Structure formats: C-alpha cells, structure tokens
C-alpha cells in the first residue's frame, strides 16, 4: 500500500484535484475534485497509473459510495483546440470544483501549475497522486470516467481501437488515423500523425 498523506494542512477542508487525458490525441480531458472523508483510506489507493484497470474500478465504486463530496469535469476536444491542453486541464478541474456542494478552504493540485480558482488558496504538488490520498482518489475518478467515455465512443469508431488505447498516441492509433483519417473527436491542434514513428 502506498504511504499517502491524508491532509496537507491539518484542520482545513481540502479538495484534491487531478486530471486524465492530457497526452491523448482524441477525446476530452477529464478532471476530478474530491474532499476526503475524515479517516478514509483504502488498501488499493495509489496513483491511478500504478493501479490495474480492475482495481481502479473497485476504487471508483468505493469512492463514490464513501465520499459525500466529489465531482468530475469534462473539457471537450474542441475546447482543447481553442484554449490549449494546459488551460483545458485547469478548466476541467475548475468545472469539477464548481460542482462540489461545499467549497474547500484549500485546493491540492497534482503537478506544478494551476490557474487560481476564485479566492481559494491552492498548493501544487508534483507527483501529488502518489503523495496525497485526496489527489490519488481524484486521479482514479478522472481516469475511470475518461476511460469509460472513450470505450463508449469506440462503438462508433472501432477502427481507432479506443477500447484499448483510450485515445492515447499509440503506434496503432496513429496508423489508423493515417489509414482512415481523423474524426470529430480528434484534437486537431495536436500532431496526429508522426510518419517516422510508424516506420519504427
């Protein structure tokens, strides 16, 4: 089990935030915001990238059952093209925070940058999803919600194999774009095809 901290500053209502899908070629960027229930922990909790898909699903169910305050925000590929992926990631976090029934006193953000959310103070924590329980929980929600979204899109666009790659820039995904062209779910501001990568 990861040694995750339950709070950054004792006594404050803290919301952990993380996103998923920044490096993808298709689909939205998704972020989650969670307020950790006092004393909550789970033996599987860790950075979502280090957890199996099955265990992420188990954690998602536990988080949704045990957490009173959590939310997920989406920013579409069209918006990503308009405002760039970094600002889109921050916007997705803001949208998640907007949905919380109570406002936190401190926002804990995975990474080293963040666009301020109103007057609420924030702390950027590099690799925060492997350090803070609330950020790790947010990372699980963001990842599972985004994966489910891409699996649903796969039904109409099976040739891109989003069921497997979830929109990430795998060699097979780029090859499919070269063969079939892009679609309205692709991020047109990204480099969709790298021919040199296909020849490796």
Could you explain how this protein is built, in words?
The chain has a five-stranded mixed β-sheet. The radius of gyration is 17 Å and the shape is globular. With 200 residues, the protein is α/β, with parallel strands linked by helices. The chain has helices at 53-66, 77-83, 85-98, 133-154, 162-165, 171-180, 195-198; strands at 14-20, 29-35, 70-75, 106-110, 121-125. The protein has a domain at 14-145: Ribonuclease H-like superfamily/Ribonuclease H (Nucleotidyltransferase, domain 5), CATH 3.30.420.10. It has seven helices and five strands, in the order E-E-H-E-H-H-E-E-H-H-H-H. A hairpin with an 8-residue loop joins strand 1 and strand 2 (29-35).
| Strand line-up of the largest beta sheet | 3-2-1-4-5
In total, the number of strands is 5
How much strand content do the residues show? 15-25%
**Quick one: CATH class of the domain at 14-145?**
Alpha Beta
CATH architecture descriptor of the domain at 14-145 = 2-Layer Sandwich
Instruction: Give the class from helix and strand content and strand pairing.
Output: alpha/beta
Protein name: Ribonuclease HII
EC number: 3.1.26.4
Family: Belongs to the RNase HII family.
Domain RNase H type-2: 12-200
What does the secondary structure layout of this molecule look like, with pairings?
Elements: E1 14-20, E2 29-35, H1 53-66, E3 70-75, H2 77-83, H3 85-98, E4 106-110, E5 121-125, H4 133-154, H5 162-165, H6 171-180, H7 195-198
Parallel strand pairs: 1-4, 4-5
Antiparallel strand pairs: 1-2, 2-3
Helix pairs in contact: 1-4, 2-3
